Amino acid sequence: MTAELLKIIDLEVSVDGVAILKGLSLRIKTGEVHAIMGRNGSGKSTLAFALMGHPAYEITKGSVIYRGKPLDELNVFERARAGMFLSFQYPQAIPGVQVGKFLRKSVQAVRGSAAGSAREFRTELDLAMVSLGVDRSFLSRYVNDGFSGGEKKRLEILQMLLLHPQLAILDETDSGLDIDALRIVAGGINEVAKTAGCLVITHYQRLLDYVKPDFVHIMLDGRLVKSGGAELALEVEEHGYEWIEVEVA
Amino acid sequence: MNTALEHYRSLPQPKRSQHLWRYSAWRRMHPTGKVEEVPQAESATVLLTNLDGSEVDSVIELRPARDAERRRLGGTLAEDNVAASYCRAICGQESLLLSIPESYVGDQPLAIDIIASGHVSGLHLLFDIGANAEVELAISIRGEAGWFGLLREGNIGENAKLSEFVHNRLDHTSTLVRCDGIELERYGRLQTATLSLGAEISKSDLRYSLAGMGTDLGVFIAVHGQGKRHDDHHIEIDHKVGNNRSQVEMHAACDDNSRSIGTGRLLIHESAQGADAGQVFRNLLLSDKAKADVIPELEVLADDVSANHGAASAPLDPEQVFYLQSRGLDTKQSRDIIVEGFLMDAFRDFKSPALIDRLRTLLIVHLDCDLI
User: Fold this and answer.
1) Do the Cβ atoms of B251 and B346 come closer than 8 Å?
2) Containing structural domain, residue A38
3) Which residue in B has a C-alpha nearest to residue A111's C-alpha?
4) DSSP states of B152-180
5) Residue B346: CB partners within 8 Å, gap ≥ 6?
6) Roughly how many angstroms between the first and final C-alpha of chain B, as a whole number?
7) Does some domain include residue A170?
8) What is the distance of C-alpha B249 from the center of its chain?
9) From CA B181, how far away is CA B179, in angstroms rounded?
10) How many separate domains does chain B show?
11) Partner residue facing B325 (CB), from A77, A88, A97
12) By mean pLDDT, which of A105-119, B240-254, B279-293 is the weakest?
């Protein structure tokens, strides 16, 4: 039996006193891919930030259990070290910090002694870069500084591959990608999904052509109002969200 | 009594109302606080090697300057410059000359190691970079001198290129007064970087004269303030003729009770049409008690120029911290990597891979040592 990785129970989250998530429940097991779809402002990114522990996102009710322990006991870096990974929709630039150094420090922090030697790291890094079609010159550039949208997303996926997460949360990783980049990025997600649970937040069906979800959830006004299989994403693509609003009204 | 001493004593003492001395009064920078005093100074030890420690090419000279050389190269700073005049006075007739012959192109960077010791120490260093020469230079200032005065003057010859950095790692109890006066001839290029980490009190008065057309100047400064460190940089650039470019990029990361000051004065003469000049000052405030003051000034007398300036001060960006923490770095690791990046980013346009690598290593060693 596959272990339950994440259990979200009746979660309510506020930002600056404004309720965004209004009672959300979800369970994810290792090896499962869950996709969350919804309109702008429905709370998808709030869920991602709240799970990762962003201080501006206040959990006002409910609980989140990650690998059998309450998540609120862990601060942000402890969540990362415990195997959680968030791929940002808008990754931060860190001027002056070279990608290569940042990746090495991050891998050391998250994987500890399992990070291996510098040589082992380089080998793993080379393989991951080749799989994502990333040029070596990437490593001497500053983190996300002057990167195109596609380059930022590739760097996010490169980090995900190197950090070996147990739970990967991907916040609109497909936005800003052309079709070739989308295929490559989806390949990275599928690789991680072999051993991790994945929560894929997206607006569009097109990413789900390449990353097959086990479950699709529709978020409206801070709640998951409908769940189904991969076919639900196709229905949304064809008919939009209105019919679901009518259904749940 | 030497003439330099007489000259210093004849100068009126600067008032704090003057732009240059507003934040670091000359009395405070003076070795004894009694501005009329000119104590006996010890000469600094100066070593010239290649950056890898090997001997330099025999055509490169670092030797005592002759009177004629001192007269030719040593007059780039105005006679009423009090700090420069004081440095001249304490150095007496002793000046060292770094001479790079015409058309010399170095295959590896040079390194000058300056070791300052004693109560008061001084060095007058002259540069003569011959026409069409290209050289890279790493200067380190270290030692436990109570007070150290460094006066650098010189000339970048026609179509010559000097890329250099000055690494201030004087003892944390020292005071440093540095004055630069460097003139660029036609098509001369100077990239000068400063990594300012040492000395409790530091005042740098850096002046560059773009005397020939087609010159290109980049001034890049990174300051790390800790404890009660007080670090004041004044950068003055004089566009005298047309079609010159200058850039100033100063980044100061201030922690604890430290204070950084950056004042810039950009003068574009009426005869300097086509000038392209910019100054940017950025401050990262790491504690509630740290301070950073910035005054960029432009004086533009020509009408066909591009001139801009900007200044920004901010605490750590919480979104950057969150991003790094989401990658497993703890609070301190996140802060340290942001500070390192912020300081290295001052050198973004400093185009010398060998010197950049050395600067990065020096900065990392400095920041890592703080952790011990």
Assistant:
1) yes
2) 32-52+79-248
3) B328
4) EEEEE-TT-EEEEEEEE---TT-EEEEEE
5) B193, B220, B221, B222, B249, B250, B251, B282
6) 49
7) yes
8) 12
9) 7
10) 1
11) A77
12) A105-119
Average pLDDT, chain B: 94
Domain presence at residue A233: yes
Task: Tell me the CATH number at A89.
Answer: 3.40.50.300
Residues 106-125 of A with CB under 8 A from B: 106, 109-110
Interchain pair A77, B330: CB under 8 A: yes
Residue A221 lies in a domain: yes
Q: Report the residue of chain B nearest A54, measured CA to CA.
A: B322
How much is the average pLDDT of B40-52?
A: 95
- The residue whose two tokens read 């170095």 is B106
> Within a 10 A sphere around the Cβ of B13, how many other Cβ atoms?
12
**Residues paired with residue B133 on neighbouring β-strands, in sequence order:** none
* Count of A-B CB contacts under 8 Å: 75
Taking CA–CA distances from B320, the nearest residue in chain A reads: A92
In a domain, B101, yes or no: yes
Is 0.80 topped by the overall pTM?
yes
ipTM above 0.90, yes or no: yes
**Cβ(A41)–Cβ(A203) under 8 Å?**
no
* Pick from A80, A88, A143: CB nearest B328: A80
Tell me if B342 and A96 make a contact (CB, 8 A cut-off): yes
Do residue A75 and residue B325 have CB atoms under 8 angstroms apart?
A: yes
If one counts the domains in chain A, the total is: 1
Burial class (CB in 10 A: 0-12, 13-18, 19+), A78: middle
Nearest CA in chain B to A96: B341
Segment B309-355, tens digit of pLDDT: 999 999 999 999 999 999 999 999 999 999 999 999 999 999 999 99
Residue with tokens 């080998």: A123
Does residue A14 lie in a domain region?
no
Chain B residues touching residue A163 (CB < 8 angstroms): 327-328
Question: Is the Cβ–Cβ distance between B274 and B303 less than 8 Å?
Answer: no
pLDDT at B372 over 70: no
pLDDT of amino acid B370? 55
**Using the 8-state DSSP alphabet, how is residue B105 labeled?**
B
Residue of B nearest to A88 (CA): B323
Q: Which residues of chain B make contact with A102, given a CB cutoff of 8 A?
A: 327, 337
Question: Which of B318, B329, B343 is nearest residue A105 as measured by Cβ atoms?
Answer: B329
Alpha-carbon distance of B202 to B219, in angstroms, equals: 18
Q: Domain limits at B123?
A: 3-318
Taking contacts as CB-CB distances below 8 angstroms, the residues of chain B near A77 are: 325-326, 328-331, 334
Q: Which residues of A touch B331 (CB under 8 A)?
A: 77
Q: Whole-angstrom Cα distance, residue B42 to residue B168?
A: 19
- Using 70 as the pLDDT threshold, list the residues of chain A that sit under it: 1-2
Confidence of residue B259 (pLDDT cuts 50, 70, 90): very high
Q: Residue B199 domain-assigned?
A: yes
Q: State whether B337 and A94 contact (CB < 8 Å).
A: yes
Q: Across the interface, do A77 and B340 touch by the CB < 8 Å criterion?
A: no
- Please check the confidence at residue B369 and state whether its pLDDT lies above 80: no
Q: Would you state the pLDDT for residue B84?
A: 94
The CA distance from A11 to A133, in Å, is 39
Query: Which of A54, A80, A95 minimises the CB distance to B327?
Result: A80
What pLDDT sits at residue A181? Answer: 87
